[in-house]
Design goal:
5-stranded mixed sheet; about 20% helix; Immunoglobulin-like; disordered C terminus; alpha+beta; 5-stranded antiparallel sheet; 5 domains; about 450 residues
Length: about 450
């Protein structure tokens, strides 16, 4: 009899030991917290949002708190203890209290607690662990458990355009720089752009380019040659940008954005000599660029060879592309004068002449204008001034080529007339002398020739 009692006692002890081993194993595998003698608290990760979490963004973690035992579990505290790559968010609570869990309160009836944490922007893609601590005020027992959180790197690209404006009608280089600002490499990129109005178009190639790989922090330049319609109205035009690529996890992503580029800008002018008369010099000013010019003003600055009498600037106003106008200034030469002498019979008369050299007839002119972007510009032009037709060189400083030619012609004519007169005079004198010797007057000789005598 005693032997049977002993055997029963040994067997009973073994059963009890085995029961406690099962309970301890369950606590280790599912964070089971005994509360009292028969309440069993179990905490599990329900989900994460988003899944996977993105680097540099927040993620919400939801946990279920269940009581798989038959007794009531009270005052159970659940605390999230974030560590790298997770961090706390200001204003968020990281200790949640579950006041009461009824016996066998589990499944759809389980209590749910949630926490929000920040994922570090430099975190690596993959799985990281977050620690959860649970404790019971009634039992004084606490334990911790780690849960897996999926993280994916963040794909982010920045597109930079190297120009803000282009001139219509001209071939212009346009460069797009793609920068990988995310934490994951970009693969199999397809980049394209378009102008919805068709004013700006690529030449020598289409608008699509392909890139195999851009590493984290890397960049690549995509260059195009474009032309804006020569008849395009000046203004800001929209470019639609599209970039598609493969992420590290194999999913395809697409970035659509827009940028602006101004069509218009600066222009150019041609300034030429038109005419000069009585000290007034007329200049032709034409807009030879592809853009209109606003508030155009022509100025003659101070310079060594010329001086301006009266106003030195002339306001033209607006000058469209291809248009021209005439401006006039009262300009005289500031050069040196020399003296030459001309023989007039036995008298010597001083004559003033303009001493010209290689640079004396180059007039500097400034053209000020406002371009289509509102910026003010000033262009310097050099105009070659032709001598005027005025006969008074000392009045305006321009020696007259025509006056010089007239003087030479007059001298030649006077010389020819003098020689002719001398010849006539010499012949008349010989005839008169001949008839005087023969006692026949010239009149009688002429009468004799008429009668044939």
């Amino acid at each position: 009899m005693k032997r049977n009692v002993y055997l029963f006692g040994v067997a009973g002890a073994s059963v009890v030991a085995l029961f406690f081993m099962v309970i301890m194993a369950g606590m280790a595998s599912a964070a089971i917290l005994p509360t009292g003698s028969s309440a069993i608290v179990k905490v599990s990760l329900l989900n994460q949002n988003p899944d996977p979490a993105r680097t540099g963004e927040t993620v919400e973690l939801k946990f279920t708190v269940e009581n798989t035992g038959g007794a009531i579990a009270s005052d159970t505290a659940i605390e999230l203890v974030p560590s790298y790559p997770f961090s706390k968010i200001a204003g968020e609570e990281y200790v949640k209290n579950v006041s009461t869990l009824q016996g066998f309160q589990q499944g759809a009836d389980a209590a749910i607690v949630s926490f929000r944490v920040m994922v570090n922007k430099d975190a690596s893609a993959g799985v990281s662990k977050v620690q959860l601590k649970q404790s019971s005020a009634s039992s004084g027992i606490s334990m911790t458990q780690d849960f897996d959180v999926s993280i994916t790197s963040r794909e982010f690209a920045q597109i930079v355009l190297d120009k803000s404006k282009i001139s219509p009608g001209n071939e212009t280089g346009l460069k797009f720089t793609l920068n990988n600002r995310g934490s994951s490499p970009l693969r199999n990129l397809i980049f394209s752009w378009s102008d919805p109005k068709g004013v700006i178009l690529p030449v020598f190639s289409d608008n699509t380019k392909y890139v195999n790989y851009i590493d984290v922090g890397g960049s690549v330049d995509l260059e195009y040659t474009v032309v804006a319609d020569v008849n395009a109205a000046p203004g800001l035009y929209q470019l639609n940008l599209d970039m598609r690529f493969d992420a590290l996890n194999g999913t395809a992503s697409e970035i659509k954005t827009t940028t602006g580029i101004f069509v218009g800008g600066e222009t150019d002018f041609d300034v030429t000599y038109s005419e000069s008369s009585s000290g007034q010099v007329s200049l032709s000013v034409s807009n030879i660029g592809n853009n209109p010019a606003y508030s155009v003003t022509v100025r003659v600055p101070e310079q060594q060879n010329f001086r301006v009498t009266g106003s030195s600037s002339s306001i033209i106003g607006n000058l469209d592309k291809g248009d021209y106008t005439i401006v006039t200034f009262q300009i005289s030469s500031a050069g040196t004068f020399g003296n030459r002498t001309a023989s007039q019979g036995s008298e010597q008369a001083p004559v003033q002449t303009f001493q010209r050299n290689a640079t004396s007839t180059n007039l500097k002119v400034l053209v000020d204008y406002t371009d289509t972007t509102g910026e003010r510009h000033s262009l310097e032009k050099t105009v070659t001034i032709q001598p005027s037709s005025s006969s008074t060189s000392s009045t305006n400083g321009f020696s007259s080529r025509q006056s010089s030619n007239s003087s030479v012609i007059m001298i030649v004519v006077v010389a020819v007339v003098a020689v002719a007169g001398f010849i006539v005079y010499w012949k008349r004198k010989r005839v008169k002398k001949f008839f005087h010797r023969g006692s026949v007057s010239p009149h009688e000789a002429r009468e004799g020739r008429k009668t044939g005598a």
